[in-house]
Write a structure and sequence with these properties.
The structure is a homotetramer of 360-residue chains. With 360 residues, the first copy, chain A, is of the alpha+beta class. In chain A, the strands form 6 sheets. Chain A has a 5-stranded antiparallel β-sheet. In chain A, strands 9-8-10-16-11 form a 5-stranded antiparallel β-sheet. In chain A, strands 5-6 form a two-stranded antiparallel ribbon. In chain A, helix 1 packs across helix 3, helix 1 packs across helix 7 and helix 3 crosses helix 7. Chain A starts with a strand and ends with a helix. The interface between A and B is large, with 115 and 115 residues. Strand 11 of chain A pairs antiparallel with strand 11 of chain B.
């Protein structure tokens, strides 16, 4: 219900603005007795952290996360986990110029219309800086999943397309994802991605991307039809990441072009286990996990904050031109990879607890 | 939270199985004083109703909706509105054969894994028959929107693609949508769609489709960031329709291929009003409506229930072949049009009430 | 959130007015595989049913409950359980006289102020007739508790006071509760209660009462601090019963008069079990069950609908006198006994599922 | 749903333990444009703050609240308001002795049973220290109420009874409440209360109390029947305050002893306004406010942490004696006054926003 809370049984509530003193969140519903340290969270924060390559924003934020509550002697107690990250490198005066001007494609205009007042510094509450707390919550969600389901659970994301350049899926190697600044699973794609980003930066422009997240080791049975379907919740979670404009589960829009016999994933027994001969469903049927890999992908639009001047209006009703000078990611899709992973982890942890509630 | 409740302030809860005695829902949160009759709901029910053309299932259901509460002397009272539709044409013995066999691509397997027991007749709770109640709730949502925002609000859907055959968008004419059995806005597309469907039926197969829903007359300011964004809620609502595998807002996946200057919708003053020079955003920025048309589309996979035999397994762990003999839609995407409209209406009504709560 | 939904994981949503065609509810979250028949519910409905003695309303309602969904071949499926009770003996013209007059002590005035319109027939939505569905939901909640915790769980209520006449607690005998029309556990109290009620009826008046509900066999650990404490949820559930004005847990207001050493329930080991030497806490500490009996009591005000004329105002702003001629309970506290039991059962079932979610 | 979140549209989520580094909360749903400073909150924090008289705990906590987000240039923005209070005077070693011993009447035993692990220092999450954040949230709730309803709204609490000594209601003077360390509205009661507390402290004991909260200036129409009744929500909110065992609205348990004609509050026109000739209802009928003062009272049990030794058990299953040596309030009912006010304010703010949503 709350605009700033995600999830139901495993849930988190975030607060904070881009240029405020701190951002934070409260993670609630975590089962007791799970080992958890700040380092467990920090490793994921560091993936999303800005300023790590020339292809992301140059804002320097250590994004050091502090656990304020809910963990005692190294394990969760079942009490809410308060997390805090102090903002360090805020250059609010970069934004004076756009105080009264609405950047096209940005939330400036809609926040002004909705609320009347807004913290314009760095986008205020609408800034993607808030997503740091999603990554933190996602790290705890992973711990919950691993604690209950075992260490075989993995939730991994990768960048599969920048602009119109896609990776070669035959080269997919998870080990490569952390070896390049794009989270690409295809080593061969890296030079092309570098070339695109170099050009985009030089042009003062930006570019869109597609991210794919795969969750393995998730048992059959998670998901709660009719209105808390696993795929519906994933779609909502991923579409809610800043700049996302499309979400697919499994074959996605391609499924619309298939016949019934092409699309349906056939099943066979493999000893006592059921195996599927394909995964067009992306691991979800009727809103419930099948036990296959859960596969979701999402489209990230290009950053709206660009140097190139664009026509817009200001708060007093005059036509203006807007050129954004702050420090921005030329391709927000890159840093969306750890965010996408985190949101998938949170949805799965939430559904795992729901499943325990109803089905024991 | 509840698996069978949709929405927050404008919300509905459904119950009922495909072959039970009745399906129904409770619509809650409706403002008082809104004129409402059964006919207001029935007109939308009739669009989704089965058996209306040879391109949908031949099950005969009048789908007559009855208002049991919440309306007094022709207007809503603010009390919950109970709605009931009796099932008439249930031929449960069609399903005896698949009682213990999991139809590939269907929820049979996942319901069995999750719940242990299931009403297999006609898919039970997982049947798309439940969507009749979404259409009913959507009809009330429209009344709420019109009552508060005025008669200019419209929420309309259309089928824009079957298999790999798309309509010609230049021919788009809303008046055509109700003139053909496909809800196509392009009269010229009808012969091609007929040919595809005729072939699919003859083959005992099925085919996927893409549906687009457009909401006009929605003011700027609806939507509640960060975790109740309008686009995120639309994505969840549409992905939750049976057989949907992908959702796009505005330019959707195409946005991932654009540069920042191509994608950002520029603004100009038009007298005292702000106008946008394009609508790649699909009417939503930062999770909040811009005042432009809200544009959402979704991909519907082909019906999993097909005559063609497919490999599967049964409840006792044996390999089997499954061929579904019941009466099924060869293209569930067609009847998804009024369902998509209904879900968009419900999301918007919910957000309208939320907006009134916080912003007056 | 919803005004017409109670509970979270085990939850129900009701609809219907006193003189509408039917009342009903949807029970959601029930675990699958629990044996359930209409008779399991009817036995509890019959306790609350009107017209059973001269001490309750003479309205004749069989209150026959029908299960519309969620049960297949005698067991719950995990799908929502739709329940319907048709209204039979509605004499709406009894109410024409109070159509525009606000009965003192009744919700007439506040509904008119809140909603502008209201179904005045028999109190419409504010009628205690709605509580029939709480009893139905409570019957299912009992099944959930028994299924998970075992047959030793019992949730029993009793009338302990009418006006200023209390039972003698030394005579408490659960077996007596169903042997008299007052649900009194003290057989010796019956003549006094009869005398009070006879006088009240003769006077065209009404009288208040106190009800106590005791849940036995509930293990330690249920309850979710800080804002979903078991006692807080019980207090909300019981205060929400029509006409209730006070709620106590354990020693209740008497605890305010005790010293710390008098109030604290001491503990001793009894073999491997912990036993408490008293139960001032009413079985709840820190919002979590201790394993002792859970004890809650609530005060029910006298029926506001009385024959004796009272000063009031009408909808057009004039002073009037109101005398209510319909068929009313002279002591609504009596029929509040099965309702109180039902609400306690629902709260406990909800918390049991919550506990499973977080603590396994 | 969340155990650590209170409210629906106006809601807050708290975190933190008694002896952790900080406690905090996130207040969500606040309308934009409301002037708010840290001083607005601090004035209420200071009322609840420990160590202010010899009749409350001697723990020294400045309880300085810091606003981390949601306020920009002195007004709320509609974004979540993050609040933080650092813990200063934590003497955790006071608690080593009770690390494995369950204090009778305290949540030690139930937390251990529910969660398996617990932060025993100062009661950890179960400590009343958490209520500091309720007071902070309540201060913001007051601002919301005043901003929408006007300055005439007031929510005031008073201590009306300690042990078996009650105030004289004829002496009630709100101006006296802040003139004595008991929040008593009756100046004449102060010497008696001092005598009781002095004796209790000397004895190493504690004593219970009754608190009354009155909200004035609340219009008719707030409250959402059937399951979000204003009185039910108040009952839940007040019963959820640590150590509370009973809640009454208006005449409360006394209403159970009245006849219908004694209890029903008669109405008369006073010009265009409706006036009530009494207020047994405590300002609420059918779960909806009448426009009269809203009157709620609650019973607070004596502090469980006392010096006097009591029989108990330890975590390893042995009989022990427990004497609590920490710094504790001899009468927690005193500091419950500002907490009760805060909870009433939060419930009313929540219902005000709900009412705007449904009824405009």
């Amino acid at each position: 219900m709350s605009a700033n809370t995600f999830g139901h049984l495993f849930r988190f509530t975030t607060f904070g603005e881009s240029h405020g003193s701190a951002i934070g969140c409260v993670v609630d519903g975590t089962p007791p007795g799970i080992p958890l340290t700040e380092a467990d969270i920090q490793v994921h924060m560091d993936k999303r952290r800005p300023g790590q390559s020339k292809y992301t924003t140059q804002r320097k934020e250590p994004d050091t996360v502090k656990i304020l509550s809910g963990v005692f002697e190294g394990v969760t107690t079942g009490a809410p986990i308060g997390l805090l990250v102090e903002n360090q490198d805020t250059r609010s005066k970069d934004y004076d110029e756009i105080k009264d001007r609405f950047r096209p494609g940005h939330a400036d205009f809609t926040y002004a219309r909705k609320y009347g007042v807004r913290d314009y510094r760095g986008g205020g509450r609408s800034s993607a800086r808030e997503t740091a707390m999603r990554v933190a919550a996602g790290a705890i969600a992973r711990k919950v999943l691993e604690n209950i389901l075992g260490e075989d659970v993995s939730i991994r994301g990768a960048l599969v397309k920048i602009g119109d350049t896609a990776i070669n899926r035959n080269n997919w190697d998870w080990a490569e994802v952390d070896n390049n600044p794009f989270f690409s699973p295809d080593a061969d794609s890296v030079p092309a991605f570098e070339a695109i980003l170099d050009k985009v930066r030089k042009d003062g422009s930006s570019i869109g991307a597609v991210v794919e997240v795969i969750a393995s080791g998730i048992p059959a049975g998670l998901g709660a039809p009719i209105y808390a379907k696993l795929d519906a919740d994933l779609a909502g979670a991923l579409m809610g990441i800043p700049a996302v404009k499309g979400v697919e589960i499994g074959a996605g829009f391609d499924a619309a072009m298939l016949s019934g016999e092409e699309n349906a994933d056939e099943m066979r027994m493999d000893g006592d286990d059921v195996t599927f001969l394909s995964n067009n469903a992306g691991g979800i049927l009727g809103g419930i996990s099948t036990g296959q890999d859960i596969v979701a992908s999402f489209a990230v639009k290009p950053t709206s904050s660009i140097l190139k001047p664009k026509r817009s209006v200001d708060a007093t009703g005059h036509d203006v031109e807007v050129s954004t000078k702050g420090r921005h990611d030329p391709c927000v899709g890159i840093r969306a990879v750890p965010i996408g992973e985190a949101m998938v982890a949170c949805v799965l942890a939430d559904h795992l607890l729901r499943h325990r509630a109803q089905c024991g």
